[in-house]
Amino acid sequence: xxxxxxxxRKDVMARNDELADRVRRRLRGAGVTAFDLISSPxxxxxxxxxxxxEALDAEIPMAVVAGxxxxxxxxxxxARWTDRLVQAVETDGGCHLDARQVYAAVEALDLSxxxxxxxxxxxxxxCPATFDLGEDAKIVLLSVTEGDDKPLKYPTAFRRASxxxxxxxDLLPYVDFDVEKAIGWAKEINPDIEFxxxxxxxxxxxxxxxxxxxxxxxxxxxx
Length: 223
Ligand code: MG
Ligand code: ZN
Hints:
By secondary structure, the protein is α/β, with parallel strands linked by helices. It has eight helices and seven strands. The chain is globular and about 45 Å long. The structure holds magnesium ion and zinc ion (ZN). Residues 95-96, 127 line the site of zinc ion (ZN). Zinc ion binds at residues 95-96, 127.
């Protein structure tokens, strides 16, 4: 039975990777850069996206695919900041987005009208890390109200992510979060991971993040 279970999982992943490649080809063909945002629940993915759209929506055409187990609440929050495209995916109990759902969401978008796509994954640091969605890069969010040992507990998320956002830094005086340790552990797992330290709520550190987002959109334009 064990062998059979493993086999099923392998088939699921192979099918997912095939669809993820299709998503990636569609996005690349349209010149759209895509990021998959992953984090624990409550780390601030939706707030970061709201502030990003608020700052850049007039400048960079973006779309968002927001996944949640239930409700379209996050998608509705994000939609307040843009007239463009917000696609809600209710996973109906599923604890991650898979490439099939993203493929369907991307098919519903007018890719010629956008340059950047943010995928807000389901709040969970385990399986979202292992599912390729066709993104250019995964971005892992961590907030200082969580443990600074998250990189040790969820190494796959930090290994698969190209970028990490440390959010809620305005709360550092009130919590026992060791920033240097957290970054050090993440870099032991993934030496190339690039960190952004910010507070999406107060705006502290947002400029470097927004500059990064701008640069990724511009890179596609140059290509
Ligand atoms: Mg959210
Ligand atoms: Zn899952």
